[in-house]
Design brief:
This protein has 4 helices and 5 strands. The protein has helices at 14-30, 60-79, 95-106, 125-133, and strands spanning 5-9, 33-40, 87-92, 110-114, 138-141.
Length: 147
């Protein structure tokens, strides 16, 4: 029998921290591995870390390192000492596509996302994509300020 897995999408936002905490709680309930995924490159609105000004020249390796640091910091901020138990994946490309691909590849039981963080009740672009394509149930965690 395969080990259960919960996948959580991470971006640099307060809402993402709430999603991380809820995903960690779900993983504990399910006795599951938690995999945190941060997409980088492409469209910053879809999950790319915004660590450098647009005019700064940087390589793919720089972008990956920036995403890995942002992911590590987000996990530490949201989960404290428990962050070391989380498998981390910084992946190039669009967030929605990457989340669906990871969830499919690991046979995830649950995929957790932060809400768009806008005053609208409609999900953002990434959430819409994941809700349509995910191979498992999806939990979209609303931003506490707009919920």
């Amino acid at each position: 029998m395969a080990v259960p897995v919960v996948v959580v999408g991470v971006k640099e936002s307060k809402g993402s921290r709430a999603a991380l905490r809820l995903a960690a709680q779900e993983a504990r309930y399910r006795d599951a591995t938690l995999i945190a995924v941060m997409a980088y490159g492409g469209n910053p609105a879809l999950g790319s870390p915004a660590g450098r000004p647009v005019a700064a020249a940087h390589t793919a390796a720089d972008e990956r390192q920036s995403a890995e640091w942002a992911l590590r910091d987000a996990l530490a901020d949201a989960l404290g000492d428990q962050a070391e138990r989380v498998e981390r994946r910084a992946v190039p490309g669009l967030a929605g596509r990457n989340l669906v691909e990871v969830a499919l590849a690991v046979g995830a039981q649950l995929l957790v996302l932060a809400g768009g963080g806008t005053a609208s009740v409609l999900p953002g672009t990434t959430s819409q994509y994941v809700l349509r394509k995910a191979p498992c149930p999806v939990l979209v965690v609303p931003d506490a300020e707009t919920a």
